[in-house]
Amino acid sequence: LNRHNKCQAPFSQECSHATDLWQNTINSVLSANYPSEIGYYQSVIWEDDFSNAWVIKGHEINITKQFILTLDHHQRLCVAAHELAHLKLGHYYSKIGLIMATNSIPKSEKAIRAEGFGLNEEGEANELALVFVKNLKSGKAMIQLCKNAFIKWQA
Fold first, then answer.
1. pLDDT tens figures, 54-110
2. Which residue, 8, 73, 109, 121, is most buried by CB atoms nearer than 10 A?
3. How far is Cα 46 from Cα 15, in angstroms, rounded to an integer?
4. How far is 6 from 83, CA to CA, in rounded Å?
């Protein structure tokens, strides 16, 4: 997949909205877990026609505009926690990672695994992400929502 469609300044209104939405989500997870690191991790939005979120070594947390705009607030928190967990665990995508799917994507396109993380790294990231979500103090339903999402996205 060709990832050359990064939202860049001057942002379109849609890119600006998606960038702010993702940055606010990342900051929400950070504020409950690593408050001193707010501002270090940056949201990066890609205008590609697939649904994915990924990290590369550094401080950028990437997501496609298509994906972020299909997720609700709670799902965005799950994704941000998962991607932050990869960074904290020292996991970095070598290529594209795991394409995460939502119910709006046809079943045949769900959870396409590209060259990137194996199931072990995804499982480790899921476990740490659940700690991050628990620290949000959003309740047991939120933790269960993320658990279910992680299972579905890995299937």
1. 998 889 999 999 999 999 999 999 999 999 999 999 887 544 444 343 333 333 333
2. 121
3. 9
4. 18
Tens-digit pLDDT profile for residues 24-46: 999 999 999 999 999 999 999 99
Q: How far is C-alpha 105 from the chain's CA centre? A: 17
Percentage with pLDDT > 70 across the chain: 79
Name the token pair of 87.
């960074």
Cβ–Cβ under 8 Å, residues 54 and 103:
no
User: Could you tell me where the beta strands, DSSP code E, fall in 47-121?
Assistant: 53-55, 60-64
Residue found by looking up tokens 């877990």 in the block = 33
Strand partners, 61: 43, 55
Dist. CA 53–CA 68, nearest whole Å: 9
